[in-house]
Amino acid sequence: MTAVSRHFWTVDISNGDSSPEHLSLQSVPRVLAAQVVVIALTLLTTAAGASDSGSPTTLPDAPSAVVALRSHLLVADLSKTQPPPSGAASPDESTSPPEAHSIFHRAVQDQKDIYTAPFHRRNLKWDLLFLAATGGLIAGDRYISRAVNPDHATLSQDISNVGLYSMAASVGVLFLSSLKTQDVHARETGFLSAEAFANTGLVLSFTQLAAGRERPTEGTGNGRFWQNNALGSSFPSAHSSFTWTMASVVAHEYPKPWVRWLVYGTATAVSVTRVTGLKHFSSDVEVGGVFGYLIGQHIFNAHCAPDLSPSCHSSRLSAKAVEK
To answer: Which end of the chain is more exposed for a tag (fewer CB within 10 A), N or C?
Structure first.
Protein backbone atom coordinates (compact mmCIF):
# COMPACT_ATOMS: atom_id res chain seq x y z
CA MET A 1 0.00 0.00 0.00
CA THR A 2 3.89 5.53 -3.90
CA ALA A 3 6.81 6.78 -2.22
CA VAL A 4 7.36 4.49 0.72
CA SER A 5 8.87 5.70 3.95
CA ARG A 6 11.39 3.36 5.44
CA HIS A 7 11.94 5.51 8.53
CA PHE A 8 11.34 2.68 10.94
CA TRP A 9 13.17 3.57 14.14
CA THR A 10 12.24 7.24 14.39
CA VAL A 11 9.74 7.69 17.21
CA ASP A 12 7.05 10.13 16.55
CA ILE A 13 -10.97 4.13 17.27
CA SER A 14 -12.51 5.68 14.67
CA ASN A 15 -11.85 9.40 14.34
CA GLY A 16 -14.50 11.29 16.17
CA ASP A 17 -14.62 13.94 13.43
CA SER A 18 -14.60 11.53 10.53
CA SER A 19 -17.74 9.82 9.29
CA PRO A 20 -17.88 6.68 7.14
CA GLU A 21 -18.01 7.42 3.44
CA HIS A 22 -21.29 5.83 2.54
CA LEU A 23 -24.58 6.99 1.11
CA SER A 24 -27.23 7.96 3.65
CA LEU A 25 -30.78 6.70 3.31
CA GLN A 26 -31.97 10.20 2.43
CA SER A 27 -29.70 10.38 -0.62
CA VAL A 28 -30.80 7.06 -2.11
CA PRO A 29 -33.88 8.45 -3.96
CA ARG A 30 -31.78 11.18 -5.53
CA VAL A 31 -29.17 8.71 -6.68
CA LEU A 32 -31.83 6.48 -8.23
CA ALA A 33 -33.41 9.45 -9.95
CA ALA A 34 -30.04 10.48 -11.35
CA GLN A 35 -29.47 6.98 -12.67
CA VAL A 36 -32.87 7.03 -14.39
CA VAL A 37 -32.07 10.38 -16.02
CA VAL A 38 -28.69 9.12 -17.24
CA ILE A 39 -30.24 5.98 -18.73
CA ALA A 40 -32.97 8.03 -20.43
CA LEU A 41 -30.46 10.45 -21.93
CA THR A 42 -28.36 7.55 -23.15
CA LEU A 43 -31.33 5.98 -24.90
CA LEU A 44 -32.33 9.32 -26.48
CA THR A 45 -28.79 9.92 -27.68
CA THR A 46 -28.60 6.46 -29.19
CA ALA A 47 -31.91 6.95 -30.95
CA ALA A 48 -30.83 10.33 -32.29
CA GLY A 49 -27.59 8.83 -33.57
CA ALA A 50 -29.49 6.09 -35.35
CA SER A 51 -31.85 8.56 -37.04
CA ASP A 52 -28.95 10.81 -38.10
CA SER A 53 -27.12 7.90 -39.69
CA GLY A 54 -29.94 7.56 -42.21
CA SER A 55 -29.69 11.14 -43.49
CA PRO A 56 -28.46 11.36 -47.11
CA THR A 57 -25.97 14.21 -46.74
CA THR A 58 -24.11 15.88 -43.92
CA LEU A 59 -22.10 19.07 -44.04
CA PRO A 60 -18.36 18.67 -43.37
CA ASP A 61 -16.86 20.30 -40.30
CA ALA A 62 -14.95 23.51 -40.75
CA PRO A 63 -11.13 23.09 -40.79
CA SER A 64 -10.76 25.04 -37.54
CA ALA A 65 -13.28 22.77 -35.82
CA VAL A 66 -11.45 19.67 -37.04
CA VAL A 67 -8.11 20.98 -35.72
CA ALA A 68 -9.66 21.86 -32.35
CA LEU A 69 -11.29 18.44 -32.04
CA ARG A 70 -8.05 16.61 -32.87
CA SER A 71 -6.12 18.74 -30.39
CA HIS A 72 -8.67 17.98 -27.70
CA LEU A 73 -8.45 14.23 -28.37
CA LEU A 74 -4.64 14.35 -28.31
CA VAL A 75 -4.63 16.08 -24.92
CA ALA A 76 -7.10 13.52 -23.59
CA ASP A 77 -4.92 10.62 -24.79
CA LEU A 78 -1.82 12.14 -23.22
CA SER A 79 -3.60 12.65 -19.90
CA LYS A 80 -4.67 9.02 -19.89
CA THR A 81 -1.27 7.60 -20.73
CA GLN A 82 0.78 9.97 -18.54
CA PRO A 83 1.90 8.25 -15.31
CA PRO A 84 0.76 9.74 -11.99
CA PRO A 85 3.12 12.12 -10.19
CA SER A 86 5.79 10.60 -7.99
CA GLY A 87 4.46 9.86 -4.52
CA ALA A 88 0.80 9.93 -5.59
CA ALA A 89 -1.31 6.85 -5.01
CA SER A 90 -3.92 5.72 -7.47
CA PRO A 91 -7.52 5.46 -6.19
CA ASP A 92 -7.48 1.67 -6.24
CA GLU A 93 -4.12 1.56 -4.48
CA SER A 94 -5.24 4.05 -1.84
CA THR A 95 -8.51 2.46 -0.88
CA SER A 96 -8.11 -1.27 -1.43
CA PRO A 97 -5.93 -3.88 0.27
CA PRO A 98 -3.22 -5.38 -1.94
CA GLU A 99 -3.91 -8.38 -4.11
CA ALA A 100 -3.11 -11.81 -2.70
CA HIS A 101 -0.15 -12.38 -5.02
CA SER A 102 1.56 -9.16 -3.82
CA ILE A 103 1.10 -9.72 -0.09
CA PHE A 104 4.01 -12.17 0.12
CA HIS A 105 6.44 -9.83 -1.67
CA ARG A 106 5.26 -6.95 0.49
CA ALA A 107 5.78 -8.98 3.67
CA VAL A 108 9.31 -9.94 2.59
CA GLN A 109 10.16 -6.30 1.91
CA ASP A 110 8.73 -5.25 5.27
CA GLN A 111 10.78 -7.86 7.11
CA LYS A 112 13.90 -6.73 5.27
CA ASP A 113 13.26 -3.10 6.20
CA ILE A 114 12.58 -4.00 9.83
CA TYR A 115 15.78 -5.99 10.30
CA THR A 116 18.01 -3.51 8.46
CA ALA A 117 16.59 -0.36 10.08
CA PRO A 118 18.85 -0.47 13.19
CA PHE A 119 21.94 -0.38 10.95
CA HIS A 120 21.06 2.89 9.24
CA ARG A 121 23.47 5.61 10.25
CA ARG A 122 20.73 8.00 11.33
CA ASN A 123 19.41 5.38 13.79
CA LEU A 124 22.67 4.59 15.57
CA LYS A 125 22.11 7.07 18.39
CA TRP A 126 18.66 5.58 19.04
CA ASP A 127 20.19 2.10 19.00
CA LEU A 128 22.68 3.08 21.70
CA LEU A 129 19.98 4.68 23.83
CA PHE A 130 17.76 1.61 23.47
CA LEU A 131 20.59 -0.79 24.36
CA ALA A 132 21.59 1.28 27.39
CA ALA A 133 18.02 1.41 28.70
CA THR A 134 17.52 -2.31 28.12
CA GLY A 135 20.80 -3.19 29.83
CA GLY A 136 19.88 -1.11 32.86
CA LEU A 137 16.49 -2.81 33.15
CA ILE A 138 17.99 -6.29 32.78
CA ALA A 139 20.38 -5.49 35.64
CA GLY A 140 17.47 -4.51 37.87
CA ASP A 141 14.93 -7.09 36.71
CA ARG A 142 15.38 -9.52 39.60
CA TYR A 143 14.95 -6.78 42.20
CA ILE A 144 11.85 -5.33 40.53
CA SER A 145 10.28 -8.77 40.19
CA ARG A 146 10.90 -9.68 43.84
CA ALA A 147 9.30 -6.43 44.97
CA VAL A 148 6.00 -7.35 43.30
CA ASN A 149 3.22 -8.55 45.59
CA PRO A 150 2.24 -12.04 44.34
CA ASP A 151 -1.24 -11.75 45.91
CA HIS A 152 -2.39 -9.53 43.01
CA ALA A 153 -0.70 -11.52 40.24
CA THR A 154 -3.90 -13.17 39.01
CA LEU A 155 -5.77 -9.86 38.80
CA SER A 156 -2.88 -8.30 36.87
CA GLN A 157 -2.81 -11.17 34.42
CA ASP A 158 -6.55 -10.80 33.82
CA ILE A 159 -6.15 -7.07 33.18
CA SER A 160 -3.37 -7.66 30.66
CA ASN A 161 -5.44 -10.28 28.84
CA VAL A 162 -8.47 -7.99 28.67
CA GLY A 163 -6.29 -5.16 27.34
CA LEU A 164 -4.78 -7.24 24.55
CA TYR A 165 -8.00 -8.96 23.52
CA SER A 166 -10.05 -5.76 23.61
CA MET A 167 -7.51 -4.02 21.39
CA ALA A 168 -7.56 -6.89 18.89
CA ALA A 169 -11.36 -7.07 19.00
CA SER A 170 -11.72 -3.31 18.43
CA VAL A 171 -9.49 -3.41 15.38
CA GLY A 172 -11.32 -6.49 14.07
CA VAL A 173 -14.74 -4.88 14.50
CA LEU A 174 -13.46 -1.73 12.81
CA PHE A 175 -12.36 -3.73 9.77
CA LEU A 176 -15.55 -5.84 9.56
CA SER A 177 -17.77 -2.78 9.87
CA SER A 178 -15.89 -1.13 7.01
CA LEU A 179 -16.98 -3.95 4.70
CA LYS A 180 -20.59 -2.89 5.24
CA THR A 181 -20.17 0.88 5.50
CA GLN A 182 -17.51 1.14 2.76
CA ASP A 183 -15.40 3.25 5.11
CA VAL A 184 -12.01 3.01 3.41
CA HIS A 185 -10.21 4.63 6.35
CA ALA A 186 -11.48 2.02 8.79
CA ARG A 187 -10.65 -0.73 6.29
CA GLU A 188 -7.08 0.48 5.96
CA THR A 189 -6.74 0.69 9.74
CA GLY A 190 -7.87 -2.90 10.19
CA PHE A 191 -5.73 -4.23 7.36
CA LEU A 192 -2.54 -2.42 8.40
CA SER A 193 -3.09 -3.48 12.01
CA ALA A 194 -3.23 -7.09 10.86
CA GLU A 195 -0.05 -6.59 8.83
CA ALA A 196 1.72 -5.04 11.80
CA PHE A 197 0.50 -7.89 14.03
CA ALA A 198 1.90 -10.50 11.63
CA ASN A 199 5.27 -8.76 11.21
CA THR A 200 5.55 -8.32 14.97
CA GLY A 201 4.78 -12.01 15.45
CA LEU A 202 7.67 -13.00 13.17
CA VAL A 203 10.17 -10.73 14.92
CA LEU A 204 8.88 -11.84 18.31
CA SER A 205 9.21 -15.54 17.49
CA PHE A 206 12.82 -15.25 16.32
CA THR A 207 13.78 -13.18 19.37
CA GLN A 208 12.13 -15.51 21.86
CA LEU A 209 13.79 -18.54 20.30
CA ALA A 210 17.19 -16.85 20.37
CA ALA A 211 16.94 -15.38 23.89
CA GLY A 212 15.35 -18.36 25.67
CA ARG A 213 14.82 -16.40 28.88
CA GLU A 214 13.15 -17.86 31.94
CA ARG A 215 10.06 -16.18 33.35
CA PRO A 216 10.05 -14.68 36.87
CA THR A 217 8.47 -17.82 38.29
CA GLU A 218 10.84 -20.22 36.52
CA GLY A 219 14.23 -21.51 37.60
CA THR A 220 16.02 -19.29 40.09
CA GLY A 221 13.76 -16.32 39.38
CA ASN A 222 16.68 -14.28 38.07
CA GLY A 223 15.58 -14.35 34.43
CA ARG A 224 18.47 -16.34 33.04
CA PHE A 225 18.90 -16.29 29.27
CA TRP A 226 19.41 -19.29 26.94
CA GLN A 227 17.59 -21.63 29.31
CA ASN A 228 14.21 -21.95 27.61
CA ASN A 229 14.83 -21.59 23.87
CA ALA A 230 11.26 -22.02 22.71
CA LEU A 231 8.27 -19.98 21.67
CA GLY A 232 6.64 -18.44 24.70
CA SER A 233 9.85 -17.64 26.57
CA SER A 234 9.97 -14.48 28.61
CA PHE A 235 12.00 -12.14 26.39
CA PRO A 236 10.36 -10.12 24.90
CA SER A 237 6.73 -9.90 26.04
CA ALA A 238 4.21 -10.98 23.40
CA HIS A 239 1.32 -9.18 25.12
CA SER A 240 3.28 -5.95 25.15
CA SER A 241 4.47 -6.31 21.54
CA PHE A 242 1.08 -7.10 20.02
CA THR A 243 -0.82 -4.43 21.96
CA TRP A 244 1.69 -1.71 21.17
CA THR A 245 1.87 -2.54 17.46
CA MET A 246 -1.92 -2.30 17.04
CA ALA A 247 -2.05 0.84 19.17
CA SER A 248 0.66 2.41 17.01
CA VAL A 249 -1.28 1.84 13.78
CA VAL A 250 -4.58 3.10 15.22
CA ALA A 251 -2.99 6.20 16.76
CA HIS A 252 -1.27 7.08 13.48
CA GLU A 253 -4.44 6.49 11.45
CA TYR A 254 -6.56 8.63 13.80
CA PRO A 255 -4.18 11.22 15.31
CA LYS A 256 -6.70 12.61 17.77
CA PRO A 257 -5.52 13.23 21.35
CA TRP A 258 -8.29 11.13 22.90
CA VAL A 259 -7.56 8.22 20.54
CA ARG A 260 -3.87 8.30 21.41
CA TRP A 261 -4.59 8.47 25.12
CA LEU A 262 -6.97 5.52 24.82
CA VAL A 263 -4.82 3.14 22.76
CA TYR A 264 -1.45 4.06 24.29
CA GLY A 265 -2.99 3.99 27.76
CA THR A 266 -4.28 0.48 27.09
CA ALA A 267 -0.88 -0.65 25.80
CA THR A 268 0.85 0.83 28.85
CA ALA A 269 -1.58 -0.90 31.20
CA VAL A 270 -0.94 -4.23 29.46
CA SER A 271 2.82 -3.78 29.77
CA VAL A 272 2.73 -2.85 33.46
CA THR A 273 0.38 -5.65 34.44
CA ARG A 274 2.57 -8.24 32.72
CA VAL A 275 5.25 -7.27 35.26
CA THR A 276 2.92 -7.08 38.27
CA GLY A 277 1.36 -10.36 37.14
CA LEU A 278 4.81 -12.02 37.37
CA LYS A 279 4.63 -13.13 33.74
CA HIS A 280 7.51 -10.96 32.54
CA PHE A 281 10.41 -8.87 33.70
CA SER A 282 10.52 -5.12 33.15
CA SER A 283 13.04 -5.41 30.31
CA ASP A 284 10.78 -7.95 28.57
CA VAL A 285 7.88 -5.50 28.30
CA GLU A 286 10.20 -2.58 27.44
CA VAL A 287 11.72 -4.41 24.48
CA GLY A 288 8.35 -5.81 23.43
CA GLY A 289 6.72 -2.39 23.58
CA VAL A 290 9.47 -0.71 21.56
CA PHE A 291 9.42 -3.48 18.95
CA GLY A 292 5.64 -3.31 18.66
CA TYR A 293 5.41 0.46 18.45
CA LEU A 294 8.14 0.84 15.84
CA ILE A 295 6.90 -2.03 13.67
CA GLY A 296 3.40 -0.56 13.72
CA GLN A 297 4.81 2.85 12.80
CA HIS A 298 6.82 1.36 9.96
CA ILE A 299 3.84 -0.51 8.49
CA PHE A 300 1.73 2.64 8.65
CA ASN A 301 4.39 4.86 7.06
CA ALA A 302 5.12 2.32 4.33
CA HIS A 303 1.57 1.51 3.24
CA CYS A 304 -0.81 4.27 4.37
CA ALA A 305 -2.89 6.28 1.88
CA PRO A 306 -2.04 10.02 2.13
CA ASP A 307 -5.63 11.08 1.49
CA LEU A 308 -6.97 9.22 4.54
CA SER A 309 -4.83 10.31 7.48
CA PRO A 310 -2.94 13.59 8.02
CA SER A 311 -0.23 11.61 9.83
CA CYS A 312 0.52 9.75 6.61
CA HIS A 313 1.19 12.94 4.68
CA SER A 314 3.38 14.47 7.38
CA SER A 315 5.32 11.26 7.98
CA ARG A 316 6.17 10.91 4.29
CA LEU A 317 7.28 14.53 4.07
CA SER A 318 9.58 14.06 7.07
CA ALA A 319 10.96 10.85 5.54
CA LYS A 320 11.76 12.65 2.28
CA ALA A 321 13.50 15.39 4.25
CA VAL A 322 15.65 12.81 6.01
CA GLU A 323 16.58 11.18 2.70
CA LYS A 324 17.69 14.54 1.32
So the answer is: C
**Other C-beta atoms within 10 Å of 205: how many?**
13
pLDDT in tens, 222-268: 999 999 878 889 999 999 999 999 999 999 999 999 999 999 999 99
pLDDT in tens, 162-215: 999 999 999 999 999 999 999 999 999 999 999 999 999 999 999 999 999 999
**Rounded CA gap, 47 and 42, in Å?**
9
Q: Which of 79, 81, 274 shows the shortest CA–CA distance to 164?
A: 274
Give the count of beta carbons closer than 10 Å to the beta carbon of residue 220: 9
Q: How far apart are CA 282 and CA 237, in angstroms?
A: 9
Q: Where are the alpha helices (DSSP H) in 147-256?
A: 153-181, 184-211, 238-253
Output the pLDDT for position 223. Answer: 95
Greatest mean pLDDT range, 93-97, 228-232, 313-317: 228-232
Q: Which of 73, 70, 48, 74 is nearest to 61 (CA)?
A: 70
50 alpha-carbon distance from chain centroid:
53
CATH topology of domain 123-323: Vanadium-containing Chloroperoxidase; domain 1 (1.20.144)
Q: Long-range pairs for 305-310 at CB < 8 Å and ≥24 separation?
A: 305/1, 305/89, 305/93, 305/94, 305/95, 305/184, 305/188, 306/87, 306/89, 306/94, 307/89, 307/94, 308/94, 308/184, 308/185, 308/188, 308/253, 309/185, 309/252, 309/253, 309/254, 309/255, 310/255
Domain boundaries, the chain: 123-323
Q: Is the pTM of this model over 0.85?
A: no
